[in-house]
Design brief:
The complex is a heterodimer of chains A (249) and B (446). Chain A is of the alpha/beta class. Chain A has 9 helices and 8 strands. Chain A has an 8-stranded mixed beta sheet with strand order 3-2-4-1-5-6-7-8, sandwiched between helices. Classes of the chains: A alpha/beta (249), B alpha/beta (446). The interface between A and B is large, with 38 and 44 residues. Bound molecules: guanosine-5'-triphosphate and magnesium ion (MG).
Chain lengths: 249, 446
């Protein structure tokens, strides 16, 4: 582990006086490791910002989309959401509630429809109506189910084809309560789709999401957002200093 | 399940297997690896410490060290202790006394409560009960609707008062409703909440005080890391849990949560969720799980699954055909479909002794996609070709490949596999094959 090596180096050089001082060094090392992967959400300034949201079951995908919709709407943007989770019971209705709450338009078909077809519809609608932001919600899936991961690749492919360019963000939503399995999630989702950033949810609990450090070290996937509750404004940009601080508190 | 942990444990213990003599140092060495494997799997460190100490104490005793097969003895001890760690034997739902029996589902957000509530209702209904599902999550958007959809799919009634009422009132009204309509079990789906959210935890206490649940099950995501025991302890302090449902066990969770909660909280895992389908909920058997982790397979669960999925009469006929090696591609297809009904292949294989963990499964990557391909190829054959594969030569192979959207090599491979299977069963028809054949037949018949 690079962190431990770095810490060892610095302990040797700086000879910290007490435990507090060692902790401070460790905090600095972690923040230093995370700083390069901390980055804000990508935005397409002169056109449509297109995002695909992926993750395991119950990670917080739909809620994060709802919070993002709120953020974009309060910036006066026109937001379209594609309801491509056609599998989980009432997933479409859940998204529609968020649409009503935030004033975003939800593009949906019936339950059981082909998710790629919904994504296609949503992309087309976003283009035709001159939307500023397109977000496509997907069904939760365990990263080990290869056929479902294949389905996800297809949804992504369809979006890229329709837009004629890469997406601005493919966001992996990760539950902070997850332990080391988060690393497996990041690895396998990245094999299926080009994950461009992570949204770490449920940091309002007692879990600190330490697995982010391992992910940053191994995969260098940027961390973009953190979820800190269930309300529309419980979403923050990722702050490596604050994160390192909380991790060691 | 827990394949990483399984692999590490099996490697550590494998070094002891078959050894005629063991020194205390050998045992220490193996247990050191066991300890690391458990810690890496996110098992709580106190639990690991106690576990290793218990195994060590028993393993270095006179009897073990001086037995003829000390290595085997140590493995047996690990197996027993692992079983004990997870609760010893299967803990059933305690539904006695006056009906309706109330089961309360509680847990963190996104753990899988609603789906598990539905699955449990389905399971109880199949056992002849008349469950009522109760939509008491009034917070998450469309949570009520989600339960209603599940109820419809399962043909189980759902009680709801929308999302404008206090969950305590909803629960109370649901119990009266169950009494009036003759439902013997009431399953309450509560909203996900953080264990540190005092206000919402109090809401659960009030529901419990009001409806006096016989079972209060904490639904826990198997992928939860070290947090699992914290969460479980906090919920247990407030609610007196009666057990756990571990969800998402079909993924590659490391196992820490499942191995820790019983030891820390003292309450057993009663069910595990193993997939998104509504029948993917299994009673939890510590002994079987321990066998799977140590690579000894889980033939019992496999047989139960076969019994549930396979049509008895068809199975008898199939066994007969296998015996006489007189089976065709039609039979092959039918058999494949029967097996697939039992569940995802990698899960099934993990139940076969010697096939779980420890690398074997990796070499034997069974891909669901591969099965879909095989099925497409067979479906592109004419009835005549299926009955008599030897006529499938060059041009037919090309046609079949085109028809099924595969390559000629794929068709060739399938034909070869088919021939090999047939030969295998012919050989099994001989004397030496009797036992193996018997086992196979039993699997599909019993
Ligand atoms: N406390 C807390 N809860 C959250 C947070 N983000 C999401 N949740 C809750 O987690 C639960 C699951 O969230 P969803 O947004 O439905 O998760 P999902 O990934 O879309 O789930 P599926 O579509 O079922 O796979 C809901 O109860 C959310 O309210 C967060 O940051 N903090
Ligand atoms: Mg969702």
């Amino acid at each position: 582990m690079r962190i431990i090596d770095g810490l060892r180096e610095r302990v040797k050089e700086e000879k910290p006086a007490d435990e507090e001082a060692v902790k401070r060094l460790l905090r600095e090392e972690i923040a230093a490791l995370l700083r390069p992967v901390a980055s804000p959400l990508a935005q397409n300034r002169d056109g449509l910002t297109a995002m695909l949201i992926v993750g395991v079951n119950g990670a917080g995908k739909t809620t994060t989309i709802g919070k993002l919709a709120h953020r974009f709407r309060s910036q006066g943007k026109k937001v379209i959401i594609g309801a491509a989770d056609t599998f989980r019971a009432a997933a479409i209705e859940q998204l529609q509630v968020w649409g009503d709450r935030t004033g975003a338009t939800v593009i949906a078909q019936q339950a059981g429809a082909d998710p790629a077809a919904v994504a296609f519809d949503a992309a087309q609608a976003a283009q035709a109506r001159g939307a500023d932001v397109l977000m496509v919600d997907t069904a939760g899936r365990l990263q080990t189910r290869s056929n479902l991961m294949e389905e996800l690749s297809k949804v992504h492919r369809v979006l890229v084809n329709q837009l004629g360019r890469p997406l601005d963000e493919v966001l992996l939503v990760l539950d902070a309560t997850t332990g080391q399995n988060g690393l497996s999630q990041a690895r396998l989702f990245r094999e299926a789709v080009p994950v461009s950033g992570i949204a770490l949810t449920k940091l309002d609990g007692t879990a600190k999401g330490g697995v982010i450090v391992a992910i940053a070290e191994e995969l260098k996937v940027p961390v973009k957002l953190v979820g800190v509750g269930e309300q529309v404004d419980d979403l923050q940009d990722f702050d490596p200093e604050a994160f390192a601080e909380a991790l060691l508190a | 399940m827990f394949s990483n942990l399984a692999e590490k444990l099996q490697t550590a213990l494998g070094k002891l297997r078959g050894r005629g003599k063991l020194s205390e140092k050998d045992v220490d060495e193996a247990l050191r690896e066991v300890r690391l494997a458990l810690l890496e799997a996110d098992v709580n460190f106190r639990v690991v410490k106690d576990f290793v100490a218990r195994v060590k104490e028993r393993a270095v005793g006179e009897e073990v060290m001086q037995s003829l097969t000390p290595g085997q003895q140590v493995i047996k001890i690990v197996h027993e202790e692992l079983t004990e760690l997870m609760g010893g034997s299967h803990a059933r739902l305690q539904l006695t006394g006056r009906t309706p029996h109330v089961i309360m589902m509680v847990g963190l957000q996104g753990a899988g409560k609603t789906t598990s509530a539905g699955k449990l209702a389905g399971l109880l209904r199949r056992q002849g009960h008349r469950p009522l599902l109760v939509a008491a999550d009034v917070y998450r958007p469309a949570a009520v609707k989600q339960l209603q959809v599940l109820g419809e799919q399962l043909n189980v009634p759902v009680f709801s008062l929308g999302d404008k009422h206090d969950p305590v009132d909803i629960a109370g009204a649901a119990v009266s409703h169950a009494r009036a309509y003759g439902n013997d079990i009431v399953i309450i789906d509560t909203a996900g909440r953080l264990h540190i959210d005092d206000e919402l935890m109090e809401e659960l206490e009030r529901i419990a005080a009001d409806v006096e649940p016989k079972e209060t099950l904490l639904v826990l995501d198997a992928m939860t890391g070290q947090e699992a025991v914290n969460v479980a302890e906090r919920f247990n302090e407030r609610l007196e849990l009666t057990g756990f449902i571990m969800t998402k066990m079909d993924g590659d969770a490391r196992g820490g949560a499942a191995l820790s909660v019983k030891a820390v909280v003292g309450k057993p895992i009663k069910f595990v969720g193993v997939g998104e389908k509504l029948d993917a909920l299994e009673p939890f058997h510590p002994e079987r799980m321990s066998s799977r982790i140590l690579g000894m397979g889980d033939v019992l669960t496999l047989i139960e699954k076969a019994q549930a999925a396979v049509d008895q009469e068809a199975a008898r006929k199939m066994a007969e055909k296998l015996r006489t090696a007189d089976f065709t591609f039609d039979d092959f297809l039918e058999q494949m479909q029967q097996v697939r009904k039992m569940g995802p292949l990698d899960q099934l294989l993990g139940m076969i002794p010697g096939l779980s963990g420890a690398g074997q499964l990796k070499g034997l990557q069974v891909d669901e996609k591969e099965l879909v391909k095989m099925e497409a190829i067979i479906r592109s054959m004419t009835p005549e070709e299926r009955a008599n594969p030897s006529i499938i030569k060059g041009s037919r192979r090309r046609r079949i490949a085109r028809g099924s959207g595969t390559k000629v090599q794929d068709v060739n491979r399938l034909l070869k596999q088919f021939e090999q299977t047939k030969t295998l069963f012919k050989q099994l028809g001989g004397k030496g094959g009797r036992r193996a054949r018997g086992m196979f037949a039993r699997l599909f018949q019993s």
